User: Fold Protease from Actinoplanes nipponensis.
Amino acid sequence: MTASISGKRVAFLATDGVEEVEYTQPRKAVEEAGGTAELISIKDGEIQAVNHMDKAGTYPVDKQAKDAAAADYDALVLPGGVANPDFLRADPDAVRFVREFFSAGKPVAAICHGPWTLVEAGVVDGRTLTSWPSLRTDLANAGATWVDEEVFVDDGLVTSRKPDDLPAFCDTLLQEIANSK
Assistant:
């Protein structure tokens, strides 16, 4: 049974190079559970998603990170893709936006390469999480403990490794949002 998150607003922080399925599946799960999903980006207009390295669909941006505040949302999702989190972690407004969720103790979910933005935000020290395996050293250097698991939750931080983990990632994300204060 899917958790109901009726009335909850969930921010999806992404830009060009986002892995399409890592954006679309969690967004669909949020919307089907009664939540409102909004795409926050570092640019206006629309973003270009990818399927691995090939161009996929484009998606309209609801708000730019420079104009977004965690106070307006109940949770944050950081989809992966190789380029997406690399662009995000270089943007001060995106990094600030991520940090605000941790300061407020709100649920955050990151999949695949998504935790790169968490490293830049300085929020993984002392935490346990998973990711795409190539991020293991980056996470360890930032003070995190890396585990190779389908989905891992550490005090409201939901992480998964790859698109194959999306069913567990989406279910766990919804549970964390439903159970958050």
Remarks:
- The first strand starts at residue 9 and ends at 13.
- The chain has a mean pLDDT of 97.
- Residues 166-179 form the longest helix (14 residues).
- The two ends are 21 Å apart (CA to CA).
